[in-house]
Structure formats: structure tokens, C-alpha cells
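Response to reviewer comment R2.3. The reviewers asked that we include at least one raw input/output pair. We reproduce the pair for Deoxyuridine 5'-triphosphate nucleotidohydrolase here without editing.
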Amino acid sequence: MQPCLVKIRRIRSGSDLPLPRYMTPHAAGMDLCADVDADLVLEPGERALVPTGIAIALPDGFEAQIRPRSGLALKHGIALVNSPGTIDPDYRGEIGVIIVNHGADAFVVRRGERIAQMVFAPFVRAELLDVDELDETARGDGGFGHTGR
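Raw output as returned:
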């Protein structure tokens, strides 16, 4: 498989944070670190936009998906509000991660903490065709649990 070449820029020069990286040889996502100057305390139910200190330039036809880290979700109830978040190939601003604390205790985001993961994926752009009717299928309009719980 041909790698997707992504240009990356540190927002603040001289940053001590590592660039996003794969943590295992077969990982699908690169971990993103929190670029906060001071500890950020999230009380239960609170959400915050956490900066990552990086901006990227994706090749046309690719997106970056920002996804939660399962360990933070399981151990602390930390999730992403818009999961997955999408970074479009024409966006050049800093990547921010909107996290929410669904846990019972306060959660502290510290500088350099791995808060999310970034997965690169190709996408297609659809053309919409306005029609009066759609073709029939066996499923029809069944949804929202129609096959069971």
C-alpha cells in the first residue's frame, strides 16, 4: 500500500511535543498530544477544545478522521463530542480536539498527553440526483432497531 504523504507544521516554533506517531507497527491511527500551557481540569459533564499545536496539508481526496482513544473512554469516560471529527484536505488551521468528560470524576489534561488519534482515509464526492421515488429494497424504510434490540 502506498503511503499518503501529509505535510505537517508546528503552530508554535520550538515546541517540545512529539509529532503525531503510530504507537505500534500495525496501528491505524496516529496519537495526537495536548498542546496546553497549563493543566486543563474537566469536571464531569464539561467539555473543552484542546489544541494539538499542529496543522496539516492533506493530498486531495483524503481526509483525517479524529477519533477517541479507547483507554481514555474506558478508564475515565473521556469521549469526543463530534466523533469522528473530519479534517478536510483544504483546511490549514490548527487541529483542535473537542473532548467531553462523561466520567464521575474530574479529569486533568496535561501537556503532551495523548488525547485522540488521527486516521487518514480516502473519500469520494457524490453527485446527487433529485428523483421522485427511490428503488424498492427488501429492507425498505426499516431502521432504528427494526431487526431487534
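The chain has one helix and eleven strands. Helices lie at 70-76. Further pairs are available on request from the corresponding author.
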